[in-house]
Batch of 2 targets.
Target 1
Amino acid sequence: MIDPRQWYVDQLDVINRIASSICRRNGVQGADAEDFVSDVRLKLLQDDYAVLRKYRGASSQTTFLTVVISNLFRDHRIKHWGKWRPSAEAKRQGEVAVRLEAAMYRDDLSFEQACQFLAQDTRLKVDRAELRRLLASLPHRAPKRLENGAAIDDVPSSDSADAGVLDGEREGRLQAAKAAVGRAVARLAHEDALIVRLRFFEGLSIADIARHVRIPQKPLYVRMNRLLETLQRDLVSQGIGPDDCDWLNAAGP
Amino acid sequence: MAATDEFDPDLLAAFIDGRLSGAERERVVKLLAESEAAFEVYADAVRARDDLDADAIIPIPVRPPVTVRRPRWLTTGAPLAAAAALLIAVLPRVVSNPAATFAMRAESIAQPLTDRPQLAVALRSALDEPRWSATRGGVSAFVDSTAALRLGARATDLQVALAVGDREGANRVVAEMVNLLDSVNLSDAARAEYGEIRKRIATGDSTSALIGAAATADEHLRDFLDSRWYGVGKWLAAGELAARAHSADFFKSSETTRFIEAAIRSGGFAPDEVEALRQIEGVAKRGIAENEFETVRETFAKLIQRHAS
């Protein structure tokens, strides 16, 4: 039986690194990140290390801590930020995209403010042109506030997005499409649904999915194609079809 | 309610470690398919675990001295965007969407080829025969169609080289891509990304990791170039390699048919080239015969030659 107190002390560095990773990947930084790390330490200590006492040895200690801290982050996120999460596209593009997206769509900064904010982190080697390109590639709407008048022309519209705020009709259609996708994915076999969610909801590559779900990579390409065809048929049966293509391409990433 | 009220964190961690099988694994897979909370925790955990393994974690930065208005949190975000992403992935199968066809990743385009035993030899031949002739001049003010097509062709060659385990071939292809990018303004990030892949090939990184890195670099380059000709280059190179490797599967693929249709309608090809594409389309639809592969290969090679020189 592991002594949770000793485990906590021995693993403090690992705990800090896991919390840092999760913050970074979710666009949480500065004081918010420090708050979360403090919160994690507190939660692990509470009730005489009750969380750590749940460990039975089925997994490695490090992975157990990773799951526990990820779960604490989820609680923390909901408490502080509601339902907001980085998009799969931002996660796929990396830390800078996640932080840009969070700055503009979560923290409500203008593009100018977001650029200044990110520029202060000397670890990030990005320039305004790169940030503009990233912004154009993200699946959300255009920045809500732009400064200096001409700034709106400074941010290119994505090929796939007018980048305007979704109007009521489009919002309604997108919500209906989202519900249809939810139903279609729920009808898949469990492992298939997990694969689709990892690919499209989290933006993982096929190689990463194969590695994480422990399934062979090569057949997964064919399997993914079949799954998309299945989803296509399901969506068509729910009335999502060619008419939806244009506005979806305009609304999506 | 905390997500861990719904599941056993040790069991989920064991799944991430690959320690589960049978009914226990099924239980976790079902949980992840059905529970949004568990899935979210799992997704964050696998990424954090990867970071730990890669020793890629850096300390939390000190609070930047910028005054940030406290946010009005938006409640839109990932679920809606994810649904849109999935729909967009599916909808091109509902209606032919030329933009989606040209935007396909080299990894996906080349996938039907990768089972062909002749592919390694075919790739070697393709790399040994110059696909285009003229040496390009200095730095372009804008990315032109020629550079984009060349880069696209090499993006496919790179994925195929990695898929067949030809590291030396992959290295040659990446080196050429880096050189090609020298002629493209503002391509520092892309050059650095392919330069990094080259280093990883040299240091013996795993093939699966390299395939993933090449796929990511391909997407970044596609976004950067923002040129249909990049996608055309990928498809033409794949077609040429498929014909060399006698891959009937490639020509049977609905994606290949969609590409040919999109290319014909794109207006980017001369009338004689459109006619040649129509012939390939006809051959693909009825099923390519063994004695037709060479003719098809020559057609693809000519199209590459014309548009990349």
Target 2
Amino acid sequence: MHKSVQHGASLLAACLVVGVMGSFASAGIAVSPLKQDLTVKPGETVKFKITVSNSRRAESDTARAVRLEVMDVTVSQDGALSFHGPGSQKNSASNWVSLEAKALTVEPGQSRIVEGSLTAPYAASGEYYSAVLVTLEDKGKTDKGVSVTYRIASGVFVTVTGRSFPREAKITRCEVTWPPPTVQTPSTPPASPPAGPEPAKVSVVLQNTGQARFDATGRISIADSHSRTVFTAPLTTHRPCVFGGDSRLFEAPLDRPLGVGQYVVRVDMDYQSGWAKAHHRLPLEITPEKAELLKAAQKAARQAGDLPVQVTPEKLAVTMPAGAFRSLKLALKNNSEDALRCTATRVFEGDRPVGVSWVSVAPEEFELSKSGQKTLELVIRVPVGAAPGQHACAVLIEADPGGTDSVHIRVPVELEVKAEK
Amino acid sequence: MRHDIARIAVVVAGLICAAGGLALGGANWSGQPYTLAVPDHITGAGQAPIGSLEMTLDHDTPCTITVSVAKAGDEVLTSAGDTLVTRYKLTGAALLNGDEVWVDSSKFLTGNYSVQGADPKIKIWVEAAAGSGRATNAGTYSASVILTASW
């Protein structure tokens, strides 16, 4: 099966789907609530409801079929949810749940309420978890490419009364991680400022050593050799709710300079206990190299933050045959405190620019309100008979805050015209 | 400050969702089509065509997106037992931790994306390439992933 690349190049004809998509009916699935807390006595039953809706978006919308499953849920250290078979986890409530429907068809504009009931065993006490997964049954029109299945999970957090459990936690890991040194290579200036080096960060793992879940918050403070606090920052996580027995990663970026010297990092974590907090102290030595890294990270962050407009993506690239057309999008976001008057202009440059008539951008003039967003549409029409190969142009976006210098952001557009067969 | 902005954005999203019929505390996927197509063929060594699919996730409460598969290996573009090097990205203005670079397919499955902003547009990207130093058989390659919005 394996062949040399030399011989293999001609055989490299892995025919991925040609993605000419026609018009598809829209499909929607709405589920609420995303999470609910149930309290039940041992041996008793409690009812709950989940609403599944098919929001009407167009006259052509059709009925949608969904499947409902009850599954166990676990949370990884970085906060990612995973779903498992019912009853497979120690703190599972899944086998206690029954739903009145496991499949539904919802008409456009209609909502269906699915009632569930949960019966706690007599021997149960404490906190248990389950999730109702609502999966859109409709599949793609083709088996080529990547099929995406849409699903929404509604969490069911169960507290079985009768015994109270204290909130307990400890810090099991605390460290400062430094980014790898970046290699500077001589090159032409990038079209837009680079993201900059990753800042150093303090990483803290908090373990819930009890059985009661909590929402944790925390912060770090850094004191110099004279015990003066020179840096404070909140610790953040993707999921502050920590189930009993779980661990969670919290991080705080070191995004401000620290001089060369010895420091102490103090970590304070609040896990909703009326009795205690979790603390940790970590010695930190800032060498001249590390001091430079912190300075560079702050400079990069400032440069990124100073740009009044964020443009995504930073570069556009498309491959298409002569005679075809494509529509590309540019997302703009106003990061400044002012409204911005903006223009979008096509720039034709380089050895093989695209034809002037091939590209249009709209709108060409617009205003971005404070924190506002705008999507620009770039339509490329390659005429029949266009020369195959690489062509280029750019979109120049000028943002004028009024009263101060305007900012120019250049988004390169690379177009490869495929040779006709 | 950043959290305040995120909260305001979620409130605004909530108003938008309420106007659109989404009950409070929920999430709404709306997407078409369902297949993330790679529009170009691989016809020679070193090519890595990409495809993308824009989806809409209305929500009126902070939520997360996790990526999973129905069975192991579903995330890799496969045709009759032959595979392509498959990489993904999930991007969108509302994602606090969207991908800035391509992510290997196995790592993509560990992704946990926080959705807090008001912009409901989320885009999934795929890149396909032949394995280094080897030829890939001709064929139609397919894969499948599950995107789960949750609390």
